[in-house]
Write a structure and sequence with these properties.
Layout (H helix, E strand, L loop, with lengths): L4 E12 L2 E12 L3 E5 L6 H8 L7 E6 L2 E2 L7 H5 L2 E4 L11 H11 L5 H14 L15 H13 L5 E5 L7 H16 L3 E5 L3 H6 L3 E6 L2 E7 H6 L4 H10 L1
Parallel strand pairs: 3-8, 3-9, 6-7, 7-8
Antiparallel strand pairs: 1-2, 1-4, 4-5, 9-10
Length: 245
């Protein structure tokens, strides 16, 4: 469990009809912590991540973010979502807008950031991910890896306190995966709080400080990453790692 908790999950349950996808989960995430969430398909990983910013509404339980229970009906979830950057498997860029417009539209509209400031921030961030020459390009002119790096920058444009990644490399060709993981590693090195649902075991083991193994809607193991990979305890995790490593 994390100290100086930024997000605390208490007894989180999510059901779709009779199917229980998340079964009474409790955990927490500290500021500047990088946590990977691994496990088999259908184990509840993406649902768990989507519950953290209420893209899925939990059936029961609490999610305390910055001291506020965001599951409380009185909470302005849109205010809290601004502090959570989200990067999906699919890039969700606006096809009819160039990269600069994709990056600046939300901070200008939602954060009321002046155009000059938003554009200067966009230039700075795309330079950091090696795409300074793509600001006038449209999404259709970018590779999958470039689109995902732009999607990460778009989330960063809102100055989030935490970044949520839902299998950010699963839609990419193998040679493009590295360029996205390098950007994520740089974010981790900069102290960004990150929760990453991933199939990339090397990233989980080497970059994240902690790894959760989620299976059957329950957290089977939750340990420092190096320890979890070196000394898995639950039979389910042992069998999962044998298949994927």
């Amino acid at each position: 469990m994390a100290e100086n908790k930024m997000i605390e999950v208490r007894n989180l349950t999510k059901r779709f009809g009779k199917l229980t996808v998340l079964d009474n989960i409790s955990t927490s995430f500290a500021a500047k912590e990088v946590v990977s969430v691994i496990g088999p398909s259908g184990g509840g990983k993406s649902t768990f991540l989507r519950c953290l910013n209420l893209l899925e509404t939990p059936t029961s339980g609490q999610i305390i973010f910055g001291g506020v229970d965001i599951c409380d009906k009185k909470t302005d979830i849109n205010l809290h979502r601004q502090k959570m950057g989200m990067v999906f498997q699919q890039f969700n860029l606006f096809e009819n807008m160039n990269v600069m417009r994709n990056l600046t539209i939300a901070p200008m509209k939602i954060r009321k950031m002046p155009k000059e400031k938003a554009e200067a921030k966009a230039v700075d961030l795309v330079s950091r991910v090696g795409l300074a020459d793509k600001l006038s390009a449209y999404p259709s002119q970018l590779s999958g890896g470039q689109k995902q790096r732009i999607a990460i920058v778009r989330a960063l444009m809102m100055n989030p306190d935490v970044m949520l990644f839902d299998e950010p490399t699963s839609a990419l060709d193998p040679e493009m995966i590295g360029e996205v993981l390098n950007v994520m590693k740089a974010l981790a090195d900069d102290g960004m709080t990150m929760i990453v649902v991933t199939h990339e075991m090397r990233f989980a083991r080497e970059v994240s400080s902690r790894t959760l193994f989620l299976d059957g809607g329950k957290i089977e193991e939750d340990k420092p990453s190096k320890e979890l990979f070196a000394h898995p305890e639950s039979p389910r995790l042992i069998s999962f790692l044998e298949k994927v490593l």
